[in-house]
Amino acid sequence: MYANRKPTQGPPCQTCFIKPAEANEDALFLFGLVRWQTVTTTMGESTLTDLDINAVNSAMNIYQIKNKPACLSKLIILFRNFWGQNAG
Questions:
Q1: Model pTM score
Q2: CA–CA separation, 58 vs 65, rounded Å?
Q3: Which residues of the chain have pLDDT under 70?
Q4: What SS3 state is found at 50?
Q5: CA–CA separation, 30 vs 3, rounded Å?
Q6: In sequence order, which ranges of 1-88 are alpha helices (DSSP H)?
Q7: For residue 39, how far is the Cα from the chain centroid?
Q8: What is the three-class DSSP state of 42?
Q9: DSSP code for 87
Q10: What is the dihedral of CA 60, 57, 79, 18, to 10 degrees?
Q11: Exposed (0-12), middle (13-18) or buried (19+): which is 83, by Cβ within 10 Å?
Q12: CA-CA 20 to 30 A from 67: which of 7, 54, 74, 84?
């Protein structure tokens, strides 16, 4: 992200980094893995994109996420904020 800037920049220092709450760490980790695993459908003139729940479930199984329903809810919120109005 920073390498593509003009002029090229490095990432912010570690003192600027905000550590996520422990309860959100699993969802943030998985978001990085599955955010491009999507399903897209067209309804009339609108195109909707949402997370592929099968991909999310597979990732949760591989990484042995304990509280899957809570993690899924957080992932959906992250994804829809990431994609904006065209999601969900």
A1: 0.72
A2: 10
A3: 1-6, 8-17, 85-88
A4: strand
A5: 24
A6: 25-34, 53-62, 68-83
A7: 14
A8: strand
A9: B
A10: -10
A11: middle
A12: 84
